[in-house]
Amino acid sequence: MPIICIRNLKKSFDKKEILKGVNLFIEKGEILGLVGRSGVGKSVLIRILIGFFKQDSGDIEISAESKDPIGYSMQENAIYEYLNVDQNLNYFSKINKIPRNIRKERIAYLLKDLNLEEYKKVLVKNLSGGTKKRVDLACALLNKPEILILDEPLLGLDPELINDILKIILNANQNGTTIIISSHQIEELSNICSRIVLLKNGLLYNIKKDQLKQVYK
Amino acid sequence: MVSESLAILKRNISSLINSKLSFIIIFIGPIFLMLIVGVALQNNELRNIRVGIYTQNPEDLKTDEFMSGFVNKIGDTAQESSLETCKNRVINSEYHACVEIKKSEEYNPIDNPSIISQGSIDTPSYQVISYVDFSKTKTVWGIINRIQKVVDLQSQEMMGGKVKEATIKMDYFIDKIQTEKNRISEVKSQIGLIKNYLGDMESDVGNIKSQTTTAIGEINGINNKINSVMALVASIPEATNQLNGIRTDLNNVLQKLNYIEQLTGTTGRLLTNLRSIKSRIEEINTDLSTTESALENIINEWNNLKNTDLSSISKPVTHETQSILGGSTLKSSSLKEIDYLFPSLLMFFIIFISLVFPTTLIIKERASKAHIRNITSKTNGTKFVVINFISGFMVIFLQIILIMLISKFFLNINILDNITSTIILSIISIITLGLIGVMIGYAFNNYEGAVMASISLSIILLIFLPVITPTETLPAQFSQIFQSAPSVILSDKIRMSVLAGTGYSFSISEAISIIITIILTIILTIMFYNKNKRKEI
């Protein structure tokens, strides 16, 4: 049974229809690549999935075990620049109501797992782009999400940092997390995704990995 | 070169036009601000001045010419039965001033009922004391001027009465002097008569003297003849002749004695004349005594008139101004300029920071990239609104406390005397205005628009604070609106709490105004929050 079922999803902004009836079924443990030209509505679809936007019509059905199954990381890091790493993680775990006994342990684990321990007390604004992205990913992983949605997680990173981020993504996937990743980095996507879908003219199409280069021609 | 410059210019203008709210705030905002301020400040004359009047005898306000005239000319007045109540109503901003009128009856130089019955106005003097609130720095001088003008007008009218009275009293003195002058003329004529009587008496006495001398001579002749008779008795023939001679002489003596008898009648006239003289002299004496007493009276009255305070004629009404806080409250007379100004400065700060800080806090939060995690978190959105407001409130409250401490210990302002009330009123102000700041933060979807809106609103509220623009100077409609504005109400309350030690009680209308503002702001905030929470800035 798919962990996410999206049926006939529609969304318009200022009378312009961005999503014209998207249908998508994602199996548990999948790494789904979401591609498409800039402005086609990938971020809109992701924002609907994470609950930031509401769809105009259509259904989204999530079959998860936990009540808070989704973690996400946006193109721009959704963390507070004037808080340090620890403060950010604590704040987001608290507003997501992660129980106190789990919170401390989880933060310690993520700090270690994402190599953030040495930056624990550093203000985010003073961190490099790659470290900020790791902090953002740590925030996304705070609730041990069953589904991790990543919008352009590799944008602006150098190859070494891209590898670091990919390792984190793959590690999460190995732990059973379903991944939805939107990116223009077609090579990296080809390497890690089990399936790729193309968003074009408000509709989703399954494409093969070797068709990826055609998308940007 | 030119094309790049034009491109930059075009970019700036396009960016501005494309951001509709910024465009409205930047272009329409200042015009609106100018219009509202222009219309409101077109006239700085004080309107709707309400004055409480206190006098010891309330009936005087209706019957006394000066007092009734004063009440009519001053405008909107209310009679007060106690001076303290009257002053407290100024403290509570119900009146702009409390006027105490003291009537003095001391000036009464001539106690002459005939003068009074002639319609002479023996006008009393008046002392007008205006109790005003000096912390209303913009209106206080206008209010004092208004009262002074009425006092001057009334004083001028009374001065006419006083001068008339003085003229009547001068005429009275002249009449009296004229009477005494006539009396002196009468004395003069009496003295003329006495002179005539004395002339007659002088001639009568001369006649008596000459007749008596003659009689004495003749009697001596008789005596000689008798002696001769005595000698001739012996030769009798010749004695007959001698006796005939004696008879003739005796006839002569008889004639003389008759004349003396007549003169005796003249002596009677002399006596009558003397009696007349005595009587005239007595009359003269009486007249002179009357004149002396009259002159003494005139001198005394003149001295009285001379001793009369001339200023009571030239200025029958004196006017002095006293602070409403003098001795009646916690505050002593040692209030300084900064004491009067401080509460307004405190309110300036509260208005500005309570509007701008929460707006900035909210809009920064909403513009933050991390905001998306707040929206999608498990925490209820209302909690974010409430906690954001509380955060703003705490920061502002701490600032207020800091300002109060600095004011007390560095500027020596007596803020601590009524600190509880002042703090409670400050809290109500921060809550009321802070909520508006939060509402603006959620109403706008761009940073500059929100910040400009809150700054503009704070400027409007600051401009229309009584210390800058008294509501009394505003057109009627504006005056009504701003009088019931929470910022104006709270500003007044804080001012009087700091200066007069008043409490934090509100009238029903004031409480309704503040509560409605708070409820309306909360409703709008929730509305804007729900409408805009998913809009990215």
Description:
The complex is a heterodimer of chains A (217) and B (537). Chain A contains seven helices and nine strands; from the N terminus they run E-E-E-H-E-E-H-H-H-E-H-E-H-E-E-H. Chain A is of the alpha/beta class and 217 residues long. In chain A, a hairpin with a 2-residue loop joins strand 8 and strand 9. In chain A, helix 2 (85-95) packs across helix 3. Chain A starts with a strand and ends with a helix. The mean pLDDT of chain A is 90. Helix content of chain B is 73%, strand content 6%. Chain B has helices at residues 2-18, 20-40, 60-63, 65-74, 83-91, 113-117, 140-232, 236-307, 311-314, 337-367, 371-375, 381-409, 419-443, 447-463, 476-483, 486-500, 508-532; strands at 50-55, 76-80, 97-104, 125-132, 317-323. Chain B is an alpha/beta fold. Mean pLDDT of chain B is 79; it is low at 107-121 and 327-333. The longest helix of chain B has 93 residues, at 140-232. Chain B contains 17 helices and five strands. The interface between A and B is medium-sized, with 20 and 13 residues.
User: Which strand-content bin applies to the residues of chain A?
Assistant: 25-35%
How far from one another are the termini of chain A? 35 Å
Biggest β-sheet: strands ordered side by side in the sheet of chain A: 5-6-7-3-8-9
Pairing-aware structural class of the strands and helices of chain B? alpha/beta
Largest binding interface between chains = A-B, 20 and 13 residues
Helix content of chain A: 25-40%
Q: How many distinct helices of chain B? A: 17
Low-confidence runs of at least 5 consecutive residues of chain B: 107-121, 327-333
How would a textbook summarize the main sheet of chain A?
A: 6 strands, mixed
Number of beta strands of chain A: 9
